[in-house]
Amino acid sequence: MSLSKTLLRMARFGSSVLPKPKKTISRRAKFKQTLQLSSTFQEHILSGRLSDPSVNVESLIIRDNRLNEVVQLQNTHPTGDGQFSFSLTHDILPALVEQVLENKLLAEQEQLSLEEDTKEAISILEADASEDLAETDSESETDLPTGRFSFWLKFSKNLEDFRPTTLKKWETKGLPSRSSINGGLFTREIILGRFLETRISSPLKPLIDSEFQNSAHIYTDLKGNLRLLLNKEPKVKPKMQIDSIERPVANQTEIKGKIFTRHAFIQKGTLQLVHRETGEQVAVPIDWMYDNAKSAEKFGLYRYTYRALIDWTDIYHQQQLLKEGVYDTFVSLEYYHRSETTLLRLGRARYITRQLISETKARSDRHTMLINPYFTIGHRNLSFEMTEFTNENYDYLNHMMKFAPVYRLFAEKNTWIVGERPYKAQDNGYHFFKYMRDTYPDRPVYYVIDENSPEFEKVNQLGHALPFKSKEHIYHTLMAKKVIGTHHGDYLYPVRSKRFDHKMNAEHVFLQHGVLGTKNLENHYGKHSPSFHTDLFFVSSEREKRVVTEDMGYPEHEVRVTGLARFDTLLAKDCEVKRQILIIPTWRTWLQTPLQFFESEYYEQYRTLLSSERLHQFASAHDMEIIFCLHPNMQQYSSHFEDLPITVINQGERDVQDLMKESMLMITDYSSVAFDFSFLKRPVFYFQFDSRRFIGPKGSHYDLEKELPGPISKTPDEVLDQLELSAARQFQMEDEYEKRADIFLRPVNSSYAETIYQNITDFKKQTSWLERLETSEAANILYRLYRKNRYYFPSMKLAYRLMQKLPVDPKLVVFESGLGKQYSDSPRYIYEELKRRNLDYKVVWVYNKRLYLGDPNAKVIKRLSPAYFYYLATAKFWVNNQNFPHYFTRRKETTYIQTWHGTPLKKMLFDLDEIHGRDEGYVDRVTNSIKQWSVLLSPSAYASTIFKSAFRYDGPILESGYPRNDLFFSNNQPKTIESIRTKLQLSDEKKVILYAPTFRDHQSLGNGKFFFDYPFDFDRVAEALGDEYVFLIRTHVLVTKKPRIPAEHRERFIDVTSYPDIQELYLITDLLITDYSSVFFDFANMNRPMFFYAYDLDLYRDTLRGFYLDYYKDLPGPILETEDAFVEALANIPQLTSDYRSRLDAFRESYCAMEDGSAASRVVDTYFAEDTLEMTEQSDGSYSV
């Protein structure tokens, strides 16, 4: 065993035996001591104890989802003393059914009238609405009435038993929720759940009435509260984790871990090994053990430990079930008293567990199956890769791994291994290998190819072919100095295992198998990916190089712009273009089994497109053939499209590059072949019906709408619309898309393959210990733990003070906007003016997501990262529209340009009589931040006066106008508007309403975060607007919690809070609705109507904030103080727009006079230009240039 594995085992053992830190338990939690549940089909017994013996538990109340009382059961425990016992029998079911029917009738009446005010929704149940939906099936499977209910304990206590401090607290702050005092007796209801100990020793049976018609399931929800579900089963969503994967003997694998089934008691479970290509299954038994103690600690949510032992020799030799390929692991679960079964992917292993896995084998008389466990990229689920050798070759493999260092002393020098996947030879690997054999035939360059591949013969004709898993393959791979591949380098190994990789002594070169496409590939090919390694990374353009260095973390010296080897033949004009449409989609990582494929949207959408009568009419009208070619990872499903009137290409039948060269049009989704085709200057069409899932939460490396060399469609009809537009252009590529294509390919002087060869031979590997540390998965895990540790900020503050001793970089500018959540506002437009002028500054943008700036002098970092502290300590300029954290002190050499983020309407800071929703130290922290400002930008004299008063700021104020409003005067507005509408998927005929409310100080969550509730009924607003408008919602950056938009309204109402720049949203907005936010000052520049929905005006004006303007007289739009007035206004937009036109004009004259499109230019001229302008102090103390 290696030293590293020994240390990891010691670490795992230590974590298992060392005492865990004790969790602090609040007084509220201690109050609920024990709860026990037992059941039959006719009766459930709920009993337990509260910690306070002076409390008398009176009853158990069952309430519906509107919190109406339905049933009240009396406590049957004779002694009191905080103890209780309740019997729930099937006799309660009729009352529950009656309540559900009554609620249904009431809901129908409300839906018809639509005249009542928005229902009050602040309750525990409705706050948990999304959770409840997750606990139950989305569609009813029965005609019986269904509903959810909650349990409430009602208890009482004499006032004389309370401490005086408690009574005094109630006098000042009010009574706790759902409590009352009557005649010296305090009475309260608390939800039943979250007891310190909840014991459910056997599966809870459903209550079933005597007629076997209605039933009720009692279950524990995710928060640990007890619920009842009528005539419906709670939905089961189990989770699993792997604690260890061991090899007790050479031919076995033992898997141990935990499973959490929430409220479902396991009856039966098996481990299923599913072959990824064929779908064939191998069942392995699992031993389960219910963890009663842990379940009791976790509010009765069921927890299990499991153990599965896989005997590979028995499966392979005796049962003869194993085949070469990848087996994915699933667990099939059946439950007591649940009709639902689940098939769960096995995964979720921690770092140490992943590192301690090791290969095993199964052996028969003739063959050895080498079994390599690994964890998939992204989700890190467990899979097993099977590689079969003859016994002779397997013994040779072991021999060579043992004595490889000795053999290298006598082997050919500088051997290169080239390839793609073992079954393939038609991509960059083959083209580069062919070039090497034609041009440098004496070089020891070999190609790895499976003898059973249909492409083996064409490689073999060139010479130096290595049959996959042969002795020659094993030998030359271990002797190789360079491994040159189009995918993971270990695809060219005879076996993909860590043991073999550790025996290698070769540099890895990544040829790529296409220009980096639309999907984020950082997890697959990034520098920090634990499953991928390369020393040299080839790309086709400077744009792609930026992706690899900035997004994927590679240093500059490891990335070379060479183009791809296949481009030599791709761009050779040696092929006649045929009248054919090539449809060539990429694969989907989540479609790994035949069942998943046939039930997928992918299969449905491509069947719809390929069978479309409109598509075939188009092809017939233009005399075109339709060619369909699935990705190699999906080739096993090609036969399921052969019933359609198209030509289906199977693996190896045709060279994909030849197909592209001879095709007139291409339809793809996210495949990189689109870039190849665009280099031929032919039209590409993107069919991206599942972009949100495919691209994922990390987003693309590119701005798809602005950078892809073809139009994007979401439906088959949209694709066909684009085809018809292309036909009208005689199938010529549009100029805009040609320009985009040119960005992704840099021409070379010689051939692309020769350029690659020269770069490989010139490359000198240089890896420092620091780089190895940065890319180590262990080091990154330790950093994440450190980042979450309470010592992180104290240590970084100390580091910041030390880094302030370093020299200030006179050309370094740090930009931040919206607390690192936005690339927007005035900092953005100042930066873009700097970039436009090509001034010699180094820029650091603080942004917590992915951001492509297209600027070699710009770097993107995350807020509060170590780099954040470093760059703020050494920068000459800080530019921000909010404050940096209060503990940052500006150096005297640093200039801090505070752009602020709006013209004030509501009163701020020192102009307030009382500050709501903030802690005691808030004012001191903000005051310290204000002291760091070097200059404050202002849009007007009105704003400057307020800033001085509200901030008690006596430093320079530059009345430049707001740089962010320069956008409104740009000549590029039409293109920007088109791009924004496309991103938001808004049709051209839809008018846009933008609702942008501010936050409420009294709706605080603490730590500078706030919640917000929508002050309108979505049904009423939708009815008032009709089909003419789409309603965009953008809440304040400090709002972190808000209700979801109802599912039935998500096409008409769109949350655009995450859209990076609100200024761009103004461009597409026809009507702005706000309340007290300053957004209307900026929007006034658009000369478009505004409504002010001030439903809590009295509270906000008189208690929370107050205003600098007269809210009724000065604002340029109607004031709507009730929901009825709001809805009525939405139904009369044209009339109200006309009524307030003159007031809007007067408002613009008064407050927008300085906005002329040159504010950013004035700021750059003053602080960044070579000949900076002098600021002139005005009579009011402000400055102008």
TrEMBL record:
EC number(s) for this protein? Answer: 2.7.8.12
Task: Kindly give the InterPro entries that the UniProt entry links to this protein.
Answer: Glycerophosphate_synth (IPR007554), TagF_C (IPR043148), TagF_N (IPR043149), TarS_C1 (IPR041038), Teichoic_Acid_Biosynth (IPR051612)
What are the recorded Gene Ontology BP terms? teichoic acid biosynthetic process
Main localisation, per the record?
membrane
- Tell me which residues make up the TarS C-terminal domain: 240-385
Keyword Cell membrane tagged: yes
User: What GO CC terms are in its UniProt record?
Assistant: plasma membrane
**Keyword annotations:** Cell membrane, Membrane, Teichoic acid biosynthesis, Transferase
User: Which family is this sequence assigned to?
Assistant: Belongs to the CDP-glycerol glycerophosphotransferase family.
Question: What is the protein's given name?
Answer: CDP-glycerol glycerophosphotransferase
Question: What taxonomic lineage is listed for the species of origin?
Answer: Bacteria, Bacillati, Bacillota, Bacilli, Bacillales
